[in-house]
Amino acid sequence: MFTGIVQAIGKVREPEKLGNGVRLTIWAPTLGLEDVAIGDSIAVNGACMTVVDKTDKDEFKIEVSAESLSKTTGLDTFGEVNLEKAMRLGDRFDGHMVSGHVDGVGVVESMEKIAESYKLVIRAPRVLSQYLAYKGSITVNGVSLTINSVEDTAMDTLISINLIPHTIEVTTLKHLKAQSEVNLEIDTIARYIERMMSLKNDEDSLF
Q1: How far apart are CA 58 and CA 92, in angstroms?
Q2: d(CA 112, CA 115)
Q3: Cα gap 83→66, rounded to integer Å
Q4: What pTM, to 2 d.p., does this model score?
Q5: CA distance 200 to 189
Q6: For 132-139, which contacts have Cβ atoms below 8 Å and span 24 or more sequence positions?
Q7: Which tens digit of pLDDT belongs to each residue from 173-187?
Q8: Distances in Å between the alpha carbon of 87 and those of 93, 94, 195?
Q9: Average of pLDDT values for 87-108?
Q10: Which of 72, 99, 160, 204 is the most exposed place for a label (fewest CB within 10 A)?
């Protein structure tokens, strides 16, 4: 379990082919790897990954399967990634409940500077539309954010998000531009509500 509060920006150093997947070496000197062991979970751009090796105090390795590659973006190439270690009992909960299971890939419609902040507009897959709500939570590349507006179209759903200067400074969202792809995870609570409502509707239809 994660919170969507990015703890460090890492850099993918050596993507290696591994069957149909990849093995990544991630340089993360500011994450604090001294308490990370092989087998621990780290969210990499919002996707929960398992540490398979620690080359030194500043680097760790993960293996990304073909299935994960097909459901995410940005995990098979060089570049900066948002990192968050898994929560521990007693940690502060500053974001929202994040599982690290990417629900879909969105496409940036625009990234516009407005005063000191930025307005980020993303086209989310239509299949996620029912989980996206005004002032609801969403995770974008591992960052816990609040949705400011929702507009459904025939093909997808447009959501707008306000990014404060601090978020721009401490995450990789600063690099986003039109047509950038992003990993999206819907709010876990919304997922359970949808499931409960579907079961209730099924029960009501029996009477």
Answers
A1: 24
A2: 10
A3: 21
A4: 0.91
A5: 17
A6: 132/157, 132/159, 132/186, 133/190, 136/187, 136/190, 137/4, 137/95, 137/96, 137/187, 138/184, 138/185, 138/186, 138/187, 139/4, 139/46, 139/96, 139/98, 139/183, 139/184, 139/185
A7: 999 999 999 999 999
A8: 9, 11, 25
A9: 87
A10: 204
Contact (CB, 8 A) for 10 and 28: yes
Pairing of strands 181-186, 104-114: antiparallel
Altogether, the residues listed in the chain come to a count of 207
Q: Per-residue pLDDT for 207 more than 60?
A: no
CA distance 128 to 107: 13
Alpha helices (H) in 15-103, listed in sequence order: 66-71
- pLDDT tens string 14-25: 889 999 999 999
**Which of 83-92, 118-127, 147-156 is least confident?**
83-92
Q: Who has greater pLDDT, 35 or 55?
A: 35
Q: What are the φ and ψ backbone dihedral angles of 84, each rounded to 5 degrees?
A: -150, 130
Count CA within 13 A, CB hemisphere, residue 199: 5
